[in-house]
Structures are given as C-alpha cells and as structure tokens.
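Structure (tokenized):
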C-alpha cells in the first residue's frame, strides 16, 4: 500500500504495488514546482539585500547607506573603519581619592581631517570625558594612562574643551562614539575625569583617523 512523504506528499508505492507511471510523473511535477518556488524566493531575497554602494531605499544596503542615516550616525558609519591610531583598554585610573584626572593620550593631527572616537567605561560616580587642544605642559608631556591626581594646575575651563561630555553613573556600562574635525599640527589631549568616583574602569578607548575629509 502506498504512503506519502512528510513535507510534499510525494507518493511512495508499497513493496507489493505495481509500478505506475502516473505516480512517477506526479512526483516529478511536485518536485519541479517546489524547486522553482525555492529559486524564485531566493532571487527575491537577493533583490531585497541589494549590493554594497546601493543608495536607494528599496534594499537593505541602500537603507544602511550614510545618506539615509542621521548626520552624526552617517559620519560614524563612514569613519569607524579608518586607520586605528590609539587603542587603550582595561585601565583603572582611580586611586585612593574619589577625584582624579586621568590622561588617556595626546594625539597630534598630521593633517586636517577627522577622528573617530570610541569611549567605553564601567564606573560609578560623577565623571567627564574631555578633549583639549591646549593643556599645561605637565599634562601634555605625561605618559599615556597617567593618573594626574586630584587637580591639574591651569587646566582650561570646560567651555574651552573641544569636547566636554559630563555624566553620572551608578555602575552601569557606557559606550559613546564621536566624530570630530581636527586641525593639522595640533596636539589633542584626551582626559577621563572623575569628580566623585567610587569606582572607575576604562574598558576601551579608541581613536581612528582619516585625512580624507577636510576639517
């Protein structure tokens, strides 16, 4: 007695059945239909994905194009894979004091261009991430990952910073990204500041640089 396959109901003659050409043809027609439908479905998926460089809104690659992103996200999309100049990870700048000025690095822009920044921390207290293009000698010449202690003499006010990001944290992780323009021949100093820090861990600090976009 004939049985049928689980998914497409193809006929499976029993061992005592006579061979029937009609059964064979019916199976072939069912297989042909399913293969053709699968081929059409795959073609449709490929069309929806599109190709790198698409700018229209009818494909996935097109929707991801910078022209369809908010301005700040478009810049990050464009520059996050630039040449990596600095990558610092797993630094604990906090000492016994709850207040610290942690120097991450000083970066000199070789040409007018753009830098992409990634700042990832897990901390608790009141903090800031600052970028200055003019800092005291003792700070600009300090080694990377230096805890400058509780104060830095003559540090320019916050409004003089190229970027001043102040925040409070209850111990949760935080990841921030920025894209800023830089000027040729200028030294930029990056600070991780704890105002009232009960704990502080810099998980990752990354600088990517490109000179393909004029500042």
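Design, position by position:
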């Amino acid at each position: 007695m004939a049985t049928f396959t689980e998914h497409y109901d193809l006929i499976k003659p029993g061992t005592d059945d006579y061979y029937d050409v009609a059964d064979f043809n019916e199976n072939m027609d069912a297989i042909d239909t399913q293969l053709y439908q699968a081929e059409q479905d795959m073609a449709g998926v490929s069309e929806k994905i599109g190709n790198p460089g698409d700018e229209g809104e009818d494909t996935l690659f097109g929707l991801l194009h910078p022209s369809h992103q908010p301005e700040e996200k478009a810049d990050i999309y464009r520059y996050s894979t630039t040449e990596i100049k600095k990558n610092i990870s797993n630094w604990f700048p906090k000492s016994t004091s709850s207040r610290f000025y942690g120097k991450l690095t000083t970066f000199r822009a070789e040409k007018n261009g753009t830098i992409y920044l990634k700042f990832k921390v897990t901390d608790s207290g009141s903090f800031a991430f600052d970028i200055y293009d003019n800092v005291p000698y003792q700070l600009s010449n300090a080694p990377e990952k230096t805890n400058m202690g509780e104060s830095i003499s003559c540090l320019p006010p916050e409004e003089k910073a190229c970027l001043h990001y102040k925040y409070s944290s209850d111990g949760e992780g935080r990841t921030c990204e920025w894209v800023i323009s830089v000027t040729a021949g200028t030294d930029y100093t990056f600070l991780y500041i704890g105002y009232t820090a009960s704990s502080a861990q810099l998980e990752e600090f990354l600088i990517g640089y490109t000179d393909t976009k004029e500042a």
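Reviewer-requested clarification: Helices lie at 21-49, 60-64, 71-79, 137-140. Residues 15 and 151 are 91 Å apart (CA to CA).
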